[in-house]
Amino acid sequence: MSLVSIESPKHCAKKGLNVHKLSKKLFFAFSAFFTTLLSLILIIWLILRPSKPEFSLKETDIYQLSLSGTNLLNSSIQLTLLSKNPNQKVGIYYDELQVYAAYKGQQITVDSPLPPFYQGHQDSNLLTASLVGAGLPVAPSFNYEVGRDQTAGKLVLNLRVNGRIRWKVGSWVSGRYRINVSCLAVMALGSTLPTGPLRSTQGTACSTAV
């Protein structure tokens, strides 16, 4: 006659306690692993200290800037930018870049996309964009502001680049970060609005925010 072993509630409670302890140990082990991994990534990031890309405006040509109808602007602008990656160990992916021109806080061209590209360590790239605006509404003060610039003898345009970038360290690629670039083009202005090329080749540095 065989004996049937029936565990008491006390024995079951002990087993449950062991399972609970095992779960806690696994939880703490995974937490320690992920904490160590994140700390390692942060230390590498701080050691490399990626610097934001540098932009400078090489050339700006205005082919058209004229009013038609009531406060409707037609514009045609060609620009060349120099983009540089100052980092020695960090590459940069440029995504979803959009360029437009503004005058006295008013956008005077539509957004023009730039093709995405990768920039290696300390590499430089020339970027060109054709900016146009056909019948864009502008504020009634547009003529007044242009008249003031004609009196001063110079026209100041703001060229803006907005988009996203990603950092690349080895095979690791970061998430996307927003980038905003602002450049000023200053050019001589005569007594009438330009209908032909009006050029600025000052090579001015741009401000970049990431």
Automatic annotation (TrEMBL):
GO cellular component: plasma membrane; plasmodesma
Keyword S-adenosyl-L-methionine (UniProt): no
Sequence ranges assigned to domain Late embryogenesis abundant protein LEA-2 subgroup in this UniProt record: 80-183
Name this polypeptide is given: Late embryogenesis abundant protein LEA-2 subgroup domain-containing protein
Compartments, record wording: Membrane
One Pfam match: LEA_2
Topology of this chain in the membrane: Single-pass membrane protein
Key word RNA-binding present: no
Ranges that cross the membrane: 26-48
Domain of life, source organism: Eukaryota
Keywords (A to Z) from UniProt: Membrane, Transmembrane, Transmembrane helix
Major subcellular location class: membrane
Phylogenetic lineage: Eukaryota, Viridiplantae, Streptophyta, Embryophyta, Tracheophyta
Cited InterPro entries: LEA_2, NDR1-like
A Gene Ontology BP annotation from the UniProt entry: defense response to other organism
